[in-house]
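Handover notes (outgoing to incoming on-call)

Open items:
1. Translation initiation factor eIF2B subunit epsilon: sequence verified, structure written out, both below. Nothing else pending on this one.
2. Nothing else urgent.
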Amino acid sequence: MSVKTKEVLKDDIVQAVVVADTFGDEFLPISSDIPLALFPLINKPLIDYTLEFLSFGGIEETFLFCCSHTEAIKSHINQGIKDGAEWSLTMKVNVIVSESCHSFGDCLRDLDRKGILRGSFVLLEPGTLSNIKLLPIIRKHNEIANKDKGAAMTLIFQESGIGQMGRDPNEEAVVAVNSSNRILFHRKMGQSRERKIEFPLEIFLDNSSVSLHHNLKDTHIAICSPSVLPLFSDNFDFQTKDDFVKGLLMNEEILGSTVYCHITKGNNYGGAVTDWRMYQAVSRELQNKWIYPLQPSVLRNNIQKNGVIVGKGVHIKDNKKIINSVIGDNVHIGENVQIRDSFIFSNTKINDGVIVTHSVIGPNCEIKSKTKITVGSIIGKGVTLEKEHLIEDTLVQATEPENCDPKDKLDKKAFRLKVTGTEDDLGKILSKKLSRLHIEDNRPEESDDDAFSDSEDEELSYTQSPVPDDTKLFFTEVIDSLTRGFEDELRCEHLILEINSSRYAYNVTVREVNFNVIKAILHMSLRLSTGPQYFSQFVRLLSYFAPVLKNYIRNDDAMLDTLQAVEDVAISNENVNEKWVMFVLKWFYDKDYISEDVILEWSKTLDAKSRFYAQVKPFTDWLEEAEEASSSDED
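Translation initiation factor eIF2B subunit epsilon structure tokens:
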């Protein structure tokens, strides 16, 4: 092989840069002792998911840039290589240490000085997870760069409806692009108090086609041209990726650089753990296989009743009430402990009678008896809380902070931490946002007493517990999508794509999809106001979702699934209008969604003594009479 050929192969190596530090206080006090890269995400280090994603995506060499906790990260990477971690088999990982960097931009300027990157590269922000195939997007970026010499970066967005769990409200963005997907306007609304947007008139005058998007989620992944690092070096006010994009758009003529975007759809997922709300959101999405093939280690064997996931070596005594929580490795939980919507990190001991709700407890902690931790509290590594403490909306660390007020000393190894320079206390942010998420949906509202009742039937089994019902979770996702679509008047084609992507995230069959989509639409009809206008509103609802109905009712099996959905909704709602069943069946029949033969065959399977059969019979009698009359006319 010639030297020239070797150089070509070397230049073709696909490289990525992962910045491991957040440079913020979003995860204090736990991040004081543990880097975000090593945070356990369903009992597996976050960086392992990131490296697996890059390996699956076709990356051959990754530079992991660290500014703090460097020895811990280097030790973890070296151990992964020694143990033959999956990512280590196909990808080389280099840890770069620079403790003098104080921002994302500083890291990229340092990389520019080192000169270790060749050609285009993938840039990941801290805490990123994804299952996106990167090589086709890299090739597309290079094709654009060949035509547009100023093309600096391609941002990767994921199509995501407003209000979806994995879409961070702080990162709500409005993006305008031209027909070539070049970004003309980019504004993050979640970081601004202004609710009004003014678009520059020239973007419409200078472009024959402009698309406005408010349905995109930032995946925190970008494809970068070689010019990106020098641009950061030449502009010291570029401290974040958002600064970079904003600066290039504002000074496009001066800098001569442009930014493009790539929008993923379907079951392509991209996102980042940027705060505690997103930490729980990503945890749930991992649990529900939204990010497949990325997945926690032996997840299915560790899922317990009520959305509880436990790690290895966990010891839990009888009579525990634990709901929607993740328990780390080697955790000891005593009697009569109540834990809900919380995360307990490894090697922690929780004694008898403790209550933990909507909170995070770091590793190596001891929470002594009858202590209550709630309202979005975060307990740092190594904290010991003596018995009968009440911790609400509080950050607690084990070491005494500077200028500690005597009243902030809770115990010998427990001090209240006050975070300055933020508009809102981090505990309040956690309380507001973490508490709105639930690992298991579809559960009625209940008080703490109801949630932690002493019923023998509700006690958790940690040996042979069923996994969460994917069908129920899928139904909840469909209800959310269709409700939002109807209220916001979204196109049904987009709703169908969203439903289909949800199907791949859950273990549901085609017939279960048909049944649950129809059931969701019928269930929505029960929310309409009652009175003389009810059925006219019902017709409006059904007519709006006509494209959805046509997409899923395609054969006799789907027709039967539809009828079973009608039966399920009618039987499970005793207060449904007496004429509701007759109306639904006649509407589906008149619109040719369901055939006469399927309806009549299905009716024969019903219990003739049931109330539902009595509601169906007038319609089937009408069908049979019409058929007899037709036969007589033919004779």
